[in-house]
Amino acid sequence: MSSTVSLTHRNNKNLVKALVRFVNLKVARPSLKAFIFAYLYVTLPKVINHISIAIKKKDYKSILPRILKVITKAFHPFKFPAFAASLIAIINILEPIVARFLRVSKRFHGTTETVFVATFISSFIAASVSFPQFQNHIIGYGRFLSLDLTLLVLSRAIDTTLSSTLSAVLPPFFQQFGDGLLFIASCTPIMYSWFFRPDRLPPAYRKWITSAANMDDEIVGVLKSLHDGTVKYGEKSDYLADYCERYGQDPAQADFSQDSPLPCKTVHAFKTSNCEVHALWRFVRGFKFAFKLYGSINAFMLLIPKKNIAMTLRLRRALQSSIRSSCFLGAFIALDWYGVCLTRTRLFPKLFPEVPKQTWDITWGPAVGAFLCGFSSFVESAQRRKELALFVFPRALGTLVPTEATDKNLLIERFTFSMSMAILVAYCKKNPKSVRGIFGKGLTAVMSISS
Q1: Are residues 317 and 270 in contact, defined by beta-carbon separation less than 8 angstroms?
Q2: Does the structure show a pLDDT above 60 at 1?
Q3: Which of 220, 244, 245, 222 has its CA nearest to residue 232?
Q4: Residue 242: how many CB atoms within 10 A of its CB?
Q5: Closest to 360 measured CA to CA, from 377, 384, 343, 380
Q6: CB within 8 Å of 433: residues ≥ 6 apart
């Protein structure tokens, strides 16, 4: 009798130890990792931004209070770090339970298939439970804060599913140039929306494009107004009067009463009437803008020590990377501008003389520019081209979905996020390398997945 009690006590003790070990390794540690990664992702950019703004304004006293406010607010139970931690915790708690049920039911054959399905179901349930609370909280600060995350997860799920299932059957052409083609396909609706439907782009992203493109607001506005029909050629309008005066030009150069498109020199901010020279000028301006950005980033990365790599080699690589990426952005801007000119004056009116000339301003000019600018990605290396494609893909999807925060749209977003997250985690468990980019590396690290 005593031996039976002792055996039962020992089994219970072993069970408690196993449970504690499971909670520690599979729940607590991954959740803590997720919280830390998400916390740094949320706070670091804000801290750096506050410091840089304070230094520019020489308002040094505000630095510490602002930093403290940022790092404390991120601990809110409904913010992204807590959401990421709870998501990972629920997934890892549910997964062995679901896997056990699937093995008992014998509905799936083989360990790999069972684990894949168990991970998918667990992740879908976890996302369905965790995401609504986070969504309800975050949309109070801006609709795109929630939608951007959903589109990011959706785009990665689509990319992972297609690359995992079609990689073996895709022709070599698509395997080599697929990321470049994805970048072109993504940039076209993004830049078209920037011209005609700016409300479909996140405000910060739209502002960054405007800053990089260095296009006057009046020119963007007049193209949109022509597209919407609020401004028409052949009808008098002083829409660009202030624009002309700002550059010290006669407002007659922006006369809409003439039944013909605006002169190229007017569209070129009066720099030149030659479209090719103007495109080159835009390339140079874009290159300078980008070099300040990429040069600063690469210079900062040089401060991080690396073993077995000489500083001279790192300096050369940093300079090459900065120049190459700056050439990419310069080419992106120049091709977008030249696409508009090519369509409205250089080529299309000569190929299709019977089409009214103003037609090219209304839609086709910006559309061709939006298409051509994506070819600039081929200036970059294959690795950078992949990163660029994965970066713009979710924003392209965003131009195709309604942004209003109605109950129906929010419900669709919850389902989309849950399904996409389930696909990503399941594929990541099956093959850690199947989820491409930094997102896949982060998910693999958080979930403590080993290849």
Answers
A1: no
A2: no
A3: 222
A4: 11
A5: 343
A6: 440, 451
